[in-house]
Fold this protein.
Amino acid sequence: MKNIVTPALLILGLSACSSSSPSNGDIEDAIKNFMVAGGTYESRACQRISVENIEKNNGVKIDDNTYRIFATYDIRITPIDGFEEVENLTAERKTIEEEKLALFTKIREELSSRNIGGVPTTSEMPEDMQPLGARYDELGQLLREKDTEMHQSLDKLKTAWGDGKQDCSNSAVQILHFKPEDLATGAVKNMKQELVFVKTDNGWMTGR
């Protein structure tokens, strides 16, 4: 399902001197400039967002000076460097967690075979089991350290994403609900937008 964007605001100041309908270039400029909060799309505001594959699906002439157009386009997010680090840390954490769980099961089974209830601390375990307890404790510490590394890496990604979209218009930000994994893959959103153009002294124009 495509995301729907509400109609843009009209810009007044009509003129009879212009083409009979908005050109493909007018449509492209309107959609791209819709994405940015200040300046123009070419000024590289809203840096991590690009607009691609713009197509005019339908156009309706309201009167000689007003034209409503329905367009579809894709919004692509530029992948953020560093996501591979998060993926590697996630894989490493999973390996540690699996070993810790397997070791916990082994310790419980061994204690049960000796009729020892619960899970005592390493120092309270039978002497021959203490190396297992020490390894279990070590894996717990490794997990905590890995969690810290992951949080730090994710914070860097969030900062990079925030810096990249800070110049996006409010309307653009509202429709850009990318998932964390989208930041790594360069996800694409299919959009559909209604644009209302008004003929001005500077040609066909529309506001955000």
